Amino acid sequence: MIACPSSKCSSPNVADLPHYWRSLPSDSPLKAEYAPPARPKVSYWAALAAVAVGIVVITEGGILIGLLIAAGGVGWGALAFKAVQWAEAQHAVWSTSHVCLACTGRF
Ligand SMILES: [Zn+2]
User: Fold this and answer.
1) How far is the CA of 97 from the centre of ligand 1 (A)?
2) How close is the Cα of 31 to the center of ligand 1, in Å?
């Protein structure tokens, strides 16, 4: 049995956060507060396109500028990957969180 970790509360009246959030009516002000963290909509196509353009520029003779474009694409792809990983971690935390129905604390 899970109880609220707040020393002032310690109520056993806690709910699974995802369950509780889904059960809220959509016009509830708590709906936004308890909402899951948003997943970024990232596209790797821009990164891939930059790398491809960089390679084309290199083969056309613009080695330095081509390398810069390709490196920018790789850097963008790495950033996008990190953002997705971070968002997935945040979402994993949310999906295993609980909410106290007595003091509305999240844990
Ligand atoms: Zn509580």
Assistant:
1) 13
2) 18
pLDDT in tens, 55-74: 999 999 999 999 999 999 99
Decide: 18 and 37 in contact? Cβ < 8 Å. no
Q: Ligand 1: distance of its center to the CA of 1 in Å?
A: 14
Backbone angles phi, psi at 100, to 5 degrees: -85, 125
Cα of 7 from ligand 1 centre, angstroms? 8
Q: Do the Cβ atoms of 58 and 67 come closer than 8 Å?
A: yes
pTM: 0.71
**Are the beta carbons of 84 and 43 closer than 8 angstroms?**
no
> In sequence order, which residues have a C-beta less than 8 Å from that of residue 39 and are 6 or more positions away?
84, 87, 88, 91
CA distance 20 to 35: 10
